[in-house]
Structures are given as C-alpha cells and as structure tokens.
Specification:
Blueprint (H helix, E strand, L loop, with lengths): L1 E2 L5 H8 L5 E6 L13 H16 L3 E3 L21 H16 L5 E6 L5 H13 L3 E5 L11 H10 L17 H11 L18 H23 L3
Parallel strand pairs: 1-3, 2-3, 2-4, 4-5
Length: about 230
C-alpha cells in the first residue's frame, strides 16, 4: 500500500511514468460523534477505505486525507470544525486540478454524508474541464450517525479511541421523521448527545465485516472505472 505523503517527488515521478497510478483522496470531516466516538471518525473511516483499496490494487496511491468537510449541522456540539459546502467544493476542485498534473485519474472516497452535495458539484466541474475524477461513498445502512454502525467500524479500526462505557442511545426515530427538524435546527434540535441511533451492542467483528464488504464494493467499482472488470 502506497501513501503519497511518504514518497519523495522522484519516487512519485517514477511511479507516474509507469502507466499512471490512481490517486485516492480520503474525504472526511472533523465533527462530533456522540460522547463515545472521536471527532475524526469520518476521516478515519475514509482513510481505512482508501487504504483497503490500495491494499487490493497496486496502482493506487493514497493521498493525505481532507479532514474538514461540510458539517454545519453538527455545530451545536463542541469541537466540530466545518468549512461549509462552498469551501469544500472549491478545495476539492483545486486539489484535483493540482493532482491531475501527476495522476491521470483521481478517486474521491468520502465517508461523511454531509459532503455529498459539494463533492458531486466538484466532480461535475472537474469533468467539465476534462479531468478523470470520480467519487464514491459507502452505503452502510443501519444507524444514521454515531450509532451501532459507526461504533462497530471504529471498534474494528481503533478500539482504544472508543469510549464504550459512554455509549448510549440518541434519537432513534426514523431519519425521515427527524430530517425536517434537523434541517431547521441542526442535530441539537433532535438529539441531546449527538447520536442518531443506538450504539449499544456495537462490536468489532461487525465493524470488520462492514469494512470488508465496503472495501470489496469500492475495489470492484474502481476496477470497472479502469476497465479491468
């Protein structure tokens, strides 16, 4: 598995001359994930997915993650750092413009749902410019935020950073019922602890299985993009 940040520029140039590697950019967020998960949860998951892709396909180079996203709905909770939709879109456009000078194809791997619209707009603009860029996000199902799904994933990735003793249910109503209130007042309007779902019962084997499935889907998708499948 190759991390861009660990290479020197001659090493990158040598790889690029060998047929054009794919640059995978993890796109995450720095936002609250309840009283039991770290603010880096979305970024950690995006990095794990991109690194899983690189473990499976030798021509993938993993870029340093974009750790700030569009997280305004979480602003009512301490520690959330959001750059908003417009800034994220601009950041990704400029990043891919720069990266495409070396990497003919770029894949954005986003693990935060709030990034969906700016990521899509950035891809649209970049494709209009003739650049080969695509975006992929996992479809986990289950809890919407900081519930059993994300807690299981983090127990698989970094169990020492999960405070299982603090894990407690949040708002457990269907997301469709919560959405109007969430859009108007952010997560604070629907959940006191920042959780949408119930993290109790989360476990590492479940997280490992979820991650394995998602990486498999990402690998198959990238192979299709490259015409390998």
């Amino acid at each position: 598995m190759t991390r861009l940040a660990a290479l020197t520029w001659p090493e990158v140039a040598a790889r690029a001359s060998g047929g054009g590697p794919v640059l995978a950019v993890p796109v995450g967020a720095t936002e609250q994930h309840g009283p039991h998960l770290p603010l880096s949860t979305d970024t950690d998951i995006a990095v794990a997915l991109a690194e899983g892709l690189a473990d499976a396909l030798p021509d993938i180079v993993v870029a340093p993650p974009v750790a700030y996203g569009s997280s305004g709905e979480h602003q009512g909770f301490a520690g959330t750092l959001s750059i908003g939709q417009e800034a994220l879109e601009s950041l990704l456009v400029e990043l891919v413009r720069s990266g495409s000078a070396t990497f003919p194809r770029v894949v954005l791997v986003s693990a935060h749902g709030g990034n969906a619209q700016p990521v899509a707009r950035a891809v649209q603009q970049l494709r209009y410019e003739g650049r080969e860029v695509s975006a992929w996000s996992p479809r986990w199902g289950g809890d919407a935020h900081a519930g059993r799904t994300e807690t299981s994933l983090m127990l698989a990735l970094a169990p020492h950073r999960v405070h299982v003793e603090r894990a407690e249910p949040g708002a457990t109503a269907p997301i469709g019922e919560l959405l109007p209130h969430l859009r108007q007042g952010g997560l604070r309007a629907v959940t006191a602890n920042g959780v949408l779902g119930d993290p109790t019962g989360a476990n590492a084997p479940e997280g490992t299985a979820l991650l394995h499935r998602a990486v498999g889907e990402l690998v198959a998708w990238v192979r299709r993009l490259k015409g390998d499948a």
